[in-house]
């Protein structure tokens, strides 16, 4: 059994977290713990037209952001990886500087201290030096910084194609490799 934590915070790009949940939703071999921050709930409703209860149906366990005593707040609870999709700058900063005042930052901190994969889909642009320093600090602590930058080599035709590809890449990066998008096989139209 694989146990994953998926957190959705208030940055734009809630569809990435939703797609990750959809990809994992009906897999009996994956236990998904969802944390939806207060700002994340607002963003999911605005961008995706979904309520917290809609998302809760896609997870095995739905934790409240203030539930600091949740199972995933302890290093003794076995978790294989955590994804924060999207990751707001506020959440990035809390994780980078170990400011664990909610369950998202606490669960992330637990992953870092236990040496477990933590992937942060930081969704902000342009970036100032403070953002970059927070990303560096998080990366130095062991986080995977994975901004949801679209790939165009698979020739996406819709926004959903872009979101799906990025969500699958994120899952593959934390070890769910059977959901990875098709691998790049090189440019077959190279000039000779």
TrEMBL record:
Gene3D superfamilies: Flavin prenyltransferase-like
One Pfam short name: Flavoprotein
Transferase in keyword set: yes
Binding residues annotated for dimethylallyl phosphate, in chain numbering: 153, 169
InterPro entries given in the database record: Flavin_trans-like (IPR036551), Flavoprotein (IPR003382), UbiX-like (IPR004507)
GO molecular function per UniProt: flavin prenyltransferase activity
Function of the protein: Flavin prenyltransferase that catalyzes the synthesis of the prenylated FMN cofactor (prenyl-FMN) for 4-hydroxy-3-polyprenylbenzoic acid decarboxylase UbiD. The prenyltransferase is metal-independent and links a dimethylallyl moiety from dimethylallyl monophosphate (DMAP) to the flavin N5 and C6 atoms of FMN.
Xref: NCBIfam families: PRK06029.1 (NF004685), ubiX_pad (TIGR00421)
Protein family membership: Belongs to the UbiX/PAD1 family.
Protein name listed in UniProt: Flavin prenyltransferase UbiX
Organism per entry: Amycolatopsis pretoriensis
Taxonomic path: Bacteria, Bacillati, Actinomycetota, Actinomycetes, Pseudonocardiales
């Amino acid at each position: 059994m694989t146990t994953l934590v998926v957190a959705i915070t208030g940055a734009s790009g809630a569809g990435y977290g939703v797609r990750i949940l959809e990809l994992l939703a009906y897999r009996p071999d994956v236990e998904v713990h969802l944390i939806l921050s207060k700002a994340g709930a607002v963003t999911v409703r605005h961008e995706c037209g979904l309520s917290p209860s809609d998302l809760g149906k896609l997870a095995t366990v739905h934790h409240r952001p203030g539930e600091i005593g949740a199972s995933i707040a302890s290093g003794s609870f076995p978790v294989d990886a955590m994804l924060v999709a999207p990751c707001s700058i506020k959440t990035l900063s809390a994780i980078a500087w170990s400011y664990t005042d909610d369950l998202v930052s606490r669960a992330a901190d637990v992953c870092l201290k236990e040496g477990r994969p933590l992937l942060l889909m930081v969704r902000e642009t342009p970036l100032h030096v403070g953002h970059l320093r927070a990303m560096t600090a998080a990366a130095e602590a062991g986080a995977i910084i994975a901004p949801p930058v679209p790939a165009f080599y698979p020739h996406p035709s819709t926004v959903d194609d872009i979101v799906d590809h990025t969500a699958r890449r994120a899952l593959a990066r934390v070890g769910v490799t059977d959901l990875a998008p098709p691998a790049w096989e090189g440019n077959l139209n190279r000039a000779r």
